[in-house]
């Protein structure tokens, strides 16, 4: 509960289904983003002569595959995201800045998250300047985003039924061990409900990359996800 | 309150749309006049759309020195033997006969922005209410040490299609067995980002047949280029071991040439070559500089209307303008021309103006039936034309999809050239 109040709404705003083709907006204000980046700058460098610190260099981050630097030691969680094919596009960067561990379980990035969408947009607009220009490399990442008009924060306010969750969980436990052991497939017990719901919606919206999880989460209703969260959250 | 550039540009669409009643009469007499300089993908499209959609209400003059225009797009396919030169040549008869465009085959040699007139090399001057500049590119002097335009027969650029394309193709075909072809690639930004690499693919295609022991060297001032993974995969698949790309990280940005000795020196190491295709750094066609509307090498424009940031009576299209995220391509110029045509008609006749939207797709051919593409959509913000969404062919695609992509590009060529020339 400590940090998720604003996050839910922001996440839905981010992943809300329908995009209207009614215009574009800048990612954010790069000047303000440069100021906000000072917090990130404790661990990350960007720009000319940037080097790895606690976190990797952020030059060219847009449209880069996750975890590409051989000379940087990544967490298992980030490496798993790489295996699953995750790419740092605007959507994923925004989700990660919003709440790092909601996107990548077990990430080493010790950062509670940036709940304000505007702050994230500004930081990302600043970082975008250090990646390829589409003028030179047409396939480079977009520099603006479509205006998003479909937002429903109610989805994540649903209180799940743990009994229904237990029933549904059998599909999960074929792969994920109920006792929380990790043998290549992450543990899913004892999570905060909100983390679980966010993660499952991230698969459902194909933000998290793993194809099997995208498929399974894709056919779960919002109520079913809430029920699973309630069930697995209560296990220890 | 001061009206800065952004307020002006940000409101200009609204003004154009709201002043629908009064018709601006041109140059003090008769129909409003639009002069278009440059008859390529930007200029020909703009001339045709303004003439067509204004239904004779606007007097359109197109100034283009060549009577037969060879498109740069698909000129690489000519080099690879996939097209005849004649199939990429186009004339302006339909623009004159079917759309009433006044086609003048001459060079524009001066622009008086106060008097709003264009001077022609052949004498005389043309008045305008709106001027559209779509002159394409020229080369930056001294960009490649040892090369200037007087050396272009020994070391062709072939980056303006026509006789240069024929020359380079002839040189490639008469290379000695086991000889060396060198390309000096340009720095960003330049016309057609995948163009040099498609060209290398086409050269390799010819050499594989006629001269399989020949070598290709690319000296590149860039560390990355468009469709890089796709080209490198294709070069491995089709031309294994033939192509050596030397990027900036390996000294490709430190190059000089000697056209008399036919040598290229890359990062201090001199190599004797048989054919050398020098593609120098580029800038806006020189008429933009003469008009005084450039900032650095290019002419900055507003993405909403393609109007020059320096003179609102001038619109700049295609390779010559600095607009933001769109690559310098024929497809982009054609897309921008339609936005400019709409804005010009709105300003001169009060016709309705809609928000600017742009798109681009670049197809490239790697070998027979192995086509790839990259594309994106763009919209105007107050700052620039911004990329919104895009796609690119993937490595490892099956042959059927690659063939379909190539066939799609042939359809596109037919489409865009009829969109330009009628």
Q: Can you give a write-up of this model?
A:
The complex is a heterodimer of chains A (236) and B (422). Chain A is globular. Chain A is built from ten helices and four strands. Chain A is 40% helix and 7% strand. The model of chain A is unreliable at 1-22 (pLDDT under 50). In chain A, helix 4 (90-98) packs across helix 6 (117-128). Chain A has a two-stranded antiparallel sheet with strand order 1-4. Chain A has two domains: 5-148, Cytochrome c-like domain (Cytochrome Bc1 Complex, Chain D, domain 2), CATH 1.10.760; 158-234, Cytochrome c-like domain (Cytochrome Bc1 Complex, Chain D, domain 2, Orthogonal Bundle). The longest helix of chain A has 13 residues, at 222-234. By secondary structure, chain B is α/β, with parallel strands linked by helices. Chain B has two domains: 5-138 and 282-355, FAD/NAD(P)-binding domain, CATH 3.50.50.60; 146-278, 3-Layer(bba) Sandwich (FAD/NAD(P)-binding domain). In chain B, helix 2 packs parallel to helix 9 and helix 6 runs parallel beside helix 7. Chain B starts with a helix and ends with a helix. Residues 1-27 of chain B have low confidence and may be disordered. The chains are: A mainly alpha (236), B alpha/beta (422).
């Amino acid at each position: 509960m400590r940090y998720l109040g604003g996050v839910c709404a922001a996440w839905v705003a981010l992943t809300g289904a329908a995009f209207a083709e009614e215009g574009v907006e800048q990612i954010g204000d790069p000047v303000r983003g440069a100021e906000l980046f000072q917090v990130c700058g404790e661990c990350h460098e960007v720009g000319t002569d940037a080097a790895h610190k606690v976190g990797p260099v952020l030059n060219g981050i847009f449209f880069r595959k996750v975890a590409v630097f051989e000379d940087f030691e990544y967490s298992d969680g980030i490496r798993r995201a790489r295996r699953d094919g995750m790419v740092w596009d605007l959507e994923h960067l925004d989700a990660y800045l919003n709440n790092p561990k909601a996107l990548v379980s077990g990430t080493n990035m010790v950062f509670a998250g940036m709940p304000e969408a505007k702050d994230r947009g500004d930081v990302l607009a600043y970082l975008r300047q250090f990646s390829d220009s589409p003028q030179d490399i047409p396939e480079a990442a977009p520099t603006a985003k479509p205006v998003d008009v479909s937002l429903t924060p109610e989805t994540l306010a649903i209180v799940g039924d743990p009994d229904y969750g237990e029933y549904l969980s059998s599909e999960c436990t074929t792969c994920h061990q109920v006792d929380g052991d990790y043998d290549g497939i992450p543990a899913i017990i004892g999570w905060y409900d909100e983390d679980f719901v966010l993660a499952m919606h991230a698969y459902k919206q194909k933000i998290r990359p793993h194809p099997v999880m995208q498929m399974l989460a894709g056919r779960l209703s919002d109520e079913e996800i809430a029920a699973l969260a309630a069930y697995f959250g209560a296990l220890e | 309150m001061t009206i800065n550039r952004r307020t002006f540009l940000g409101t200009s669409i609204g003004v154009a749309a709201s002043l629908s009643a009064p018709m601006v009469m041109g140059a003090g007499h008769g129909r409003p006049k639009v002069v278009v300089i440059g008859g390529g993908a930007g200029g020909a499209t703009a001339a045709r759309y303004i003439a067509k959609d204004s239904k004779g209400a606007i007097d359109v003059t197109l100034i283009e020195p060549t009577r037969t225009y060879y498109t740069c797009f698909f000129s690489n396919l000519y080099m690879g033997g996939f097209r005849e030169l004649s199939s990429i040549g186009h004339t302006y008869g339909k623009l004159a006969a079917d759309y009433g465009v006044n086609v003048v085959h001459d060079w524009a040699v001066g622009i008086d922005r106060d008097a709003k007139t264009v001077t022609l090399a052949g004498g005389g001057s043309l008045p305008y209410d709106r001027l559209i500049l779509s002159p394409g590119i020229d080369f930056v002097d001294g960009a490649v040490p040892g090369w200037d335009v007087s050396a272009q027969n020994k070391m062709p650029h072939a980056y303006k299609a026509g006789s240069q394309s024929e020359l380079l193709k002839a040189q490639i075909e008469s290379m000695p067995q086991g000889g060396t072809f060198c390309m000096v690639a340009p720095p960003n930004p330049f016309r057609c980002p995948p163009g040099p690499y498609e060209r290398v693919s086409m050269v390799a295609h010819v050499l594989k047949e006629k001269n399989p022991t020949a070598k290709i060297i690319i000296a590149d001032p860039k560390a990355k280029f468009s469709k890089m993974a796709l080209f490198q995969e294709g070069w491995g698949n089709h031309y294994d071991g033939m192509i050596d790309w030397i990027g900036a990280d390996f000294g490709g940005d430190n190059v000089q040439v000697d056209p008399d000795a036919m040598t290229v020196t890359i990062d201090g190491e001199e190599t004797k070559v048989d054919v050398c295709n020098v593609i120098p750094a580029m800038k806006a066609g020189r008429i933009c500089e003469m008009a005084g509307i450039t900032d650095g090498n290019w002419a900055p424009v507003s993405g909403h209307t393609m109007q020059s940031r320096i003179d609102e009576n001038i619109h700049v299209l295609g390779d010559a303008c600095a607009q933001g995220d769109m690559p310098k391509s024929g497809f982009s110029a054609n897309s921008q021309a339609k936005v400019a045509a709409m804005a010009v008609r709105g300003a001169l006749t009060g016709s309705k103006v809609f928000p600017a939207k742009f798109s681009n797709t670049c197809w490239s051919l790697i070998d027979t039936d192995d086509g790839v593409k990259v594309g994106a959509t763009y919209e105007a913000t107050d700052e620039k034309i911004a990329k919104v969404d895009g796609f690119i062919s993937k490595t490892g695609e099956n042959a059927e999809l690659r063939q379909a992509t190539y066939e799609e590009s042939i359809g596109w060529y037919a489409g865009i050239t009829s969109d330009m020339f009628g």
